[in-house]
Amino acid sequence: MSREGLKAEAAELNVADSASVNRCFQQIAARGRLDILVNNAGVGQTVAPVVELSDEEWQRVINITLTGAFYCCRAAGRIMERQGSGSIVNIASVNGQNPAGARRGLQRRQGRRDQPDAHVGPGASGLRRAGQRRQPRAGLHRVQ
């Protein structure tokens, strides 16, 4: 990239903290342009049957994987709107396609280990049977 006169920088922050995200993006804006945001935050989680998963663990995972992506998109989007361009790439968790712990946990509790269930996943068009494969769709959007 440097041979072509391009520059990239990485930033470390707590995506689950709105104030931390806003401070980071304000510092980026003060240094110049923001051309791309890649949201790829994730967290290891307790794999347990859904009936045993604590509220605290659920909230911790949601705060990082979902709310954190929202905070970053919002902060980056504000900058990109002001400068008239930019791109945001959101990389989803594998749990969006296969929330195995929750489904399997419920099936075991209900004594239906081998019976498929139906669920709606992110980006899914309608219901599909658990375990049914589908082609992933890119979630790229450009602000212009």
The CATH architecture of the domain at 34-118 and 137-144 can be given as 3-Layer(aba) Sandwich
Parts with pLDDT < 50 across at least 5 consecutive residues: 115-144
**Please, what is the oligomeric state?**
single chain
How helical, in percent, are the residues? Answer: 25-40%
Could you tell me the strand content as a percent range? 5-15%
* Major sheet: 3 strands, mixed
Biggest β-sheet: strands ordered side by side in the sheet = 1-2-5
CATH homologous superfamily placement of the domain at 34-118 and 137-144:
NAD(P)-binding Rossmann-like Domain
What's the count of strands? Answer: 5
Rg (CA only): 19 Å
CATH topology of the domain at 34-118 and 137-144: Rossmann fold
What is the H-and-E element order? HEHEHEEE
Structural class: alpha+beta
| Highest CATH level, the class of the domain at 34-118 and 137-144 | Alpha Beta
Compute the number of helices: 3
Q: Look at the structure and give the mean pLDDT.
A: 75
**Gap between N and C termini:** 24 Å
Shape: elongated
